[in-house]
Design brief:
The protein has 5 helices and no strands. It has one domain (about 5-100). The chain has about 100 residues and is mostly helical.
Length: about 100
């Protein structure tokens, strides 16, 4: 599975989760487990994206690049600042692609 497929699947998971409050009863949406998952899933999805990318590179014999680590740090900081998963993922993908194209 390439990175774009993983990103697309995570994007779908995140936005399907965002639609739950519109279709599920209020009692379920305010349940502590649901609130806990809503808080913890986005950072975990970002961790899965990073791990998948690193593992794919290691399988190809490419050592973890400084640019990938830098892009991960930038993505993490953006997530801490804005608390929006889609913004964090978008910035991370853009930064990684820019670094690839610039040869960094």
């Amino acid at each position: 599975m390439n990175n774009y497929n993983v990103i697309f699947v995570m994007f779908l998971i995140t936005y399907i989760q965002k639609l739950f409050p519109f279709f599920l009863p209020k009692k379920f949406c305010s349940h502590p487990l649901t609130l806990h998952l809503a808080e913890k899933l986005p950072p975990n999805i970002m961790l899965i994206l990073l791990t998948t990318t690193l593992l794919e590179n290691v399988k190809k014999g490419i050592p973890p690049a400084d640019s990938l680590i830098a892009a991960s740090i930038i993505t993490f900081v953006v997530h801490l600042l804005f608390k929006r998963v889609i913004v964090s993922v978008f910035v991370g993908v853009v930064v990684i692609e820019l670094m690839k194209r610039l040869g960094l």
